[in-house]
C-alpha cells in the first residue's frame, strides 16, 4: 500500500502514473512470480481530503447554525445568571446548587422509575405483540391498527386519556372503581396512581413502535436456524429464547435507545395529564427542567439541568449499546 | 436406526402439487439418495420426513410407526441443512452440544460426546470458535457434528456439500459415505448432483416434477434407466439422444437414420416386442459407449464431422456433428482428429438404449 501515498501526493501525476502502471503490468505477466518487484498500482487512489470538505461544507454550515450555535449558547447560559437583556457570569454556581436541590434529585429518581417502567412494559408487550402479529394471517390489518396511537400528537393523546381518567365521568375511573381496585379518589390525583397512569399512556402510545421494529427484526430471523433447532429437539418456547431473541437483540437495541431518549425528552402528554402533580409525584426531571426554565425563567439553572440531562443520556446510551452488543459476539 | 417408509405421500402448496403419490421404502441402515433437479419435490419430501412440512396426504412411517403428527423434536431425526444453519451467537462447542442440551443430557456426557464427534470430524481445534470464524468446509463439518452427536434414528442431509468448492466436495463425498458406514444409521441424502448420488448412495430415488421416476441401486439407475429423462439426467457427460426410425420385421430389426442403419441385437429385438416397429424411437448412447475412428470400420458406423475437441485431462471429449444434431464421444487424449475432419462412430450395442418416441419409457 505504499504506492497509494505516492499517488495521492500529487493529482497531476496521476494519469501518467496510471499509464505507467498499466504498461508495467503487461511486462510483469511474462516474468516468473518470484521476480515481481512492484505490487500492482492502486487504480482507485483516494481523492484529496479537501474535496470532501467542499462537498460537506453546506451541510456543516446549516448544522452549525441550527444545532451547534444553540448548543454553545446553552453552555454559556449555564455559567451565567441570565436575565432579560443579558447575563452575569457566576461560574459553576448553577451546577453546584443542583446538588443541594431536593427537587432536582427527586426528579432523577422519578425519571428513572418512569423510564424503567415504560421500557420494561413496552419491550415486553411490544415483542409479544410482534410475535403474535407475525404469526397472524391478518398481519397487514393488525399493523395498520397498531400504528394508530403513534399517529396521534402526544398532547392530544394526553387530553384523550385525561377524559378517560376523569374522576367524574372517566371510563377507566369508573371501571376500576366498579372492580373495587380504586377507592374514590381520582386516578390522576392519587400520588400513588398518578405515576402508573402516565406510564400507561406512554405504553399505550409507544408500544406499537417497539412492535413494528421487533416485527421487522422477526422477519430476518433465519428460518433454517429455527428449523435446525426444532429438529435438534427444541420446543417453540425454547426456540424463541435460543434463536429468535438473540437475533432480535440488534433491532431491540435501536428500539430501546429511541424510547429511552424519548422518555428523557417527551413530556407533552405528561404536562397535559398531571403537569408534574399531584404535589411532585410525577415531576420527572424533564418536567422540572421545563418549570425552572419556562415557568420561573431561571434560564441559567435550566441550562445547567439540561446539560446534565444530556450528559446522562449520552452515557446511558453508550452503556446500553455495550450491554446489547455483547450477546452478539461481533458478527462479521 | 430405522426403516423409513413413505406411503402414497402427496404434498400440495396451495393448488400446486409438489410431491405426487410418492412411495419409497428406505431399508434400515441404508444410504438413500433422493436425486432430482431443483423444484422436483426432493426437498419437500425431506422436510416432510423431518416434520418441518405438513403432509397433505399419505403416511410416513419409521419402523412401522406413523410419524405424520409428531413434532420434529419427537421424531428423533438429525438434519444437516444446505446453508449449515449454525447458530451464530454460539461457539462451535455449543452448536454441536445443542441437541444434547435440549434433551437435558448430563454435562459430563455432553463434553464426552461433543469431543468424540469433533474428533471424528477432525474439528477438535475449532471448538472454541464462533461460526463466522470458520470456512465453508469447517462450517459444514460442524453442522454434521451437530447431527451425529446424538444417536438419531435417521440422518437427513439436504444438499450439505452443494456450497463447497469442487475439490472439497469430492473429499467430503468420501467422508460422508465413510461416516454413514461407520455409524450404520439410515441416511436420506437429498442432492441435485447425480455424481454425488451415484458415488455415495446404496439406493437412489430419482424424482422429476414431484413424481418418483426410478428407484434402484446406482448401477441400476446408470445402466438400466427406466426412461429417457432418467437416462439424460444421470451420467456426466450426458447421454446422447437421436431420434431414429425403426425398420424391419421378425428378428431382424434395425434403427434407421439418414446416414446410418444399425441392427439391434437378437435379445433387444425381443425387448422391443414389436411395440414400435413401424414408428420412430429415440436412441440413447452414453459418450463412453461410442468409439470414434477416422476410417470407416464397418457398415453400421455413423459418419459425421468433428465439431470440437475438449481435452479433459485423462480423457478427450469429441463433439461430432451428425447432420443437424451433435453427439459427444469419449475417447483417449491421443485421438488425432481435427475439427472439420470426417470421422466414423461405432456404437457398443451392449450398452445402448432405445426409448419410446412418445412417453420416453425405455425398451432396453
Describe the model.
The complex is a heterodimer of chains A (332) and B (364). Helix content of chain A is 71%, strand content 2%. Chain A is mainly α and 332 residues long. Chain A has 3 domains: 2-35, no CATH class; 55-93, no CATH class; 96-328, MetI-like (MetI-like fold). Chain A has a two-stranded antiparallel ribbon. Residues 1-12 and 14-29 of chain A have low confidence and may be disordered. Chain B has 2 domains: 4-233, P-loop containing nucleotide triphosphate hydrolases (Rossmann fold, 3-Layer(aba) Sandwich), CATH 3.40.50.300; 240-356, Beta Barrel (OB fold (Dihydrolipoamide Acetyltransferase, E2P)), CATH 2.40.50.140. In chain B, a hairpin with a 2-residue loop joins strand 9 and strand 10 (211-216). Chain A binds chain B through residues 222, 224-225, 227-235, 238, 242-243, 246, 327-329, 331-332, and chain B through 50-52, 71-73, 77-79, 81-83, 85-89, 98-99, 102-103, 130, 132, 146, 156. Chain A: The chain crosses the membrane at residues 51-76, 114-134, 141-165, 196-218, 238-258, 302-321.
The CATH first-level class of the largest domain in chain A comes to Mainly Alpha
Shape of chain B: elongated
With strands numbered from the N-terminus, the spatial order across the biggest sheet of chain A is: 1-2
From the 3D structure, determine the CATH topology of the largest domain in chain A. MetI-like fold
The whole-angstrom Rg of chain A is 29 Å
How large a portion of the residues of chain A is in β-strands, by DSSP E? under 5%
- Helix-strand string of chain B: EEEHEEEHHHEHEHEEHHEEEHEEEEEEE
Characterize this entry briefly.
Chain A is mainly α. Chain A has 14 helices and two strands; from the N terminus they run H-H-H-E-E-H-H-H-H-H-H-H-H-H-H-H. In chain A, 71% of the residues lie in helices and 2% in strands.
Amino acid at each position: 500500500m505504499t504506492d497509494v501515498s505516492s499517488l495521492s501526493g500529487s493529482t497531476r501525476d496521476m494519469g501518467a502514473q496510471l499509464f505507467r502502471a498499466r504498461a508495467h503490468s503487461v511486462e510483469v505477466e511474462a516474468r516468473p512470480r518470484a521476480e515481481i518487484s512492484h505490487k500492482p498500482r492502486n487504480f482507485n487512489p483516494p481523492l484529496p481530503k479537501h474535496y470532501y470538505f467542499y462537498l460537506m461544507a453546506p451541510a456543516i454550515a446549516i448544522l452549525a447554525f441550527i444545532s451547534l450555535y444553540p448548543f454553545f449558547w446553552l453552555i454559556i447560559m449555564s455559567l451565567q445568571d441570565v436575565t432579560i437583556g443579558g447575563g452575569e457570569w457566576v461560574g459553576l454556581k448553577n451546577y453546584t446548587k443542583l446538588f443541594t436541590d431536593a427537587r432536582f434529585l427527586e426528579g432523577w429518581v422519578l425519571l428513572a422509575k418512569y423510564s424503567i417502567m415504560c421500557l420494561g412494559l413496552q419491550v415486553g408487550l411490544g415483542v409479544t405483540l410482534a410475535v403474535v402479529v407475525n404469526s397472524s394471517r391478518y398481519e397487514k390489518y393488525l399493523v395498520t391498527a397498531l400504528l394508530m396511537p403513534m399517529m396521534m400528537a402526544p398532547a392530544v393523546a394526553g387530553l384523550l386519556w385525561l377524559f378517560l381518567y376523569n374522576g367524574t365521568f372517566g371510563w377507566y375511573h369508573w371501571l376500576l372503581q366498579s372492580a373495587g381496585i380504586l377507592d374514590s379518589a381520582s386516578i390522576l390525583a392519587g400520588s400513588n396512581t398518578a405515576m402508573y397512569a402516565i406510564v400507561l399512556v406512554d405504553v399505550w402510545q409507544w408500544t406499537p413502535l417497539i412492535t413494528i421494529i421487533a416485527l421487522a427484526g422477526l422477519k430476518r430471523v433465519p428460518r433454517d436456524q429455527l428449523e435446525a433447532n426444532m429438529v435438534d429437539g427444541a420446543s417453540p418456547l425454547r426456540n424463541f429464547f435460543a434463536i429468535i431473541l438473540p437475533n432480535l437483540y440488534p433491532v431491540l437495541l435501536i428500539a430501546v435507545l429511541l424510547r429511552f431518549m424519548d422518555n428523557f425528552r417527551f413530556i407533552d402528554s405528561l404536562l397535559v395529564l398531571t403537569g408534574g402533580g399531584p404535589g411532585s409525584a410525577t415531576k420527572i426531571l424533564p418536567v422540572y427542567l421545563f418549570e425552572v426554565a419556562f415557568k420561573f425563567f431561571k434560564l441559567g439553572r435550566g441550562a445547567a439541568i439540561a446539560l446534565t440531562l444530556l450528559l446522562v443520556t449520552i452515557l446511558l446510551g453508550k452503556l446500553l449499546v455495550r450491554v446489547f452488543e455483547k450477546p452478539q459476539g461481533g458478527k462479521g | 436406526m430405522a426403516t423409513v417408509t413413505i406411503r402414497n405421500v402427496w404434498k400440495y402448496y396451495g393448488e400446486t402439487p409438489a410431491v405426487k403419490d410418492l412411495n419409497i421404502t428406505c431399508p434400515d441402515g441404508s444410504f438413500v439418495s433422493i436425486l432430482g433437479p431443483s423444484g422436483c419435490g426432493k426437498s419437500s419430501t425431506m422436510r416432510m420426513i423431518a416434520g418441518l412440512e405438513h403432509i397433505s396426504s399419505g403416511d410416513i412411517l419409521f419402523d412401522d410407526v406413523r410419524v405424520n403428527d409428531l413434532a420434529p423434536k419427537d421424531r428423533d431425526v438429525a438434519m444437516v441443512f444446505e446453508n449449515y444453519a449454525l447458530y451464530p451467537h454460539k461457539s462451535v462447542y455449543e452448536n454441536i452440544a445443542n441437541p444434547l442440551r435440549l434433551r437435558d443430557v448430563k454435562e459430563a456426557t455432553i463434553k464426552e460426546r461433543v469431543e468424540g464427534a469433533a474428533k471424528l470430524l477432525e474439528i477438535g481445534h475449532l471448538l472454541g470458535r464462533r461460526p463466522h470464524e470458520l470456512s465453508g468446509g469447517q462450517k459444514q463439518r460442524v453442522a454434521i457434528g451437530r447431527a451425529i452427536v446424538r444417536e438419531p434414528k435417521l440422518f437427513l442431509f439436504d444438499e450439505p456439500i452443494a456450497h463447497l468448492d469442487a475439490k472439497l466436495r469430492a473429499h467430503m463425498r468420501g467422508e460422508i459415505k465413510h461416516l454413514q458406514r461407520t455409524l450404520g444409521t439410515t441416511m436420506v441424502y437429498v442432492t441435485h448432483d447425480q455424481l454425488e448420488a451415484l458415488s455415495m448412495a446404496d439406493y437412489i430415488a430419482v424424482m422429476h416434477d414431484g413424481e418418483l421416476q426410478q428407484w434402484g441401486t446406482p448401477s441400476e439407475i446408470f445402466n438400466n434407466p427406466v426412461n429417457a429423462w432418467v437416462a439424460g439426467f444421470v451420467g456426466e457427460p450426458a447421454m446422447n439422444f437421436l431420434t431414429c426410425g425403426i425398420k424391419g420385421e421378425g428378428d431382424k430389426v434395425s434403427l434407421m437414420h439418414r446416414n446410418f442403419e444399425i441392427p439391434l441385437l437378437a435379445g433387444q429385438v425381443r425387448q422391443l416386442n414389436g411395440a414400435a416397429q413401424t414408428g420412430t424411437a429415440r436412441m440413447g448412447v452414453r459418450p463412453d459407449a461410442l468409439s470414434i475412428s477416422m476410417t470407416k470400420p464397418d457398415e453400421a458406423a455413423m459418419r459425421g464431422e468433428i465439431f470440437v475437441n475438449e481435452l479433459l485431462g485423462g480423457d478427450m471429449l469429441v463433439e461430432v456433428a451428425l447432420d443437424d444434431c451433435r453427439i459427444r464421444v469419449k475417447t483417449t487424449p491421443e485421438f488425432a482428429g481435427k475439427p472439420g475432419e470426417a470421422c466414423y462412430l461405432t456404437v457398443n450395442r451392449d450398452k445402448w438404449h432405445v426409448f419410446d418416441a412418445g412417453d420416453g419409457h425405455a425398451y432396453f
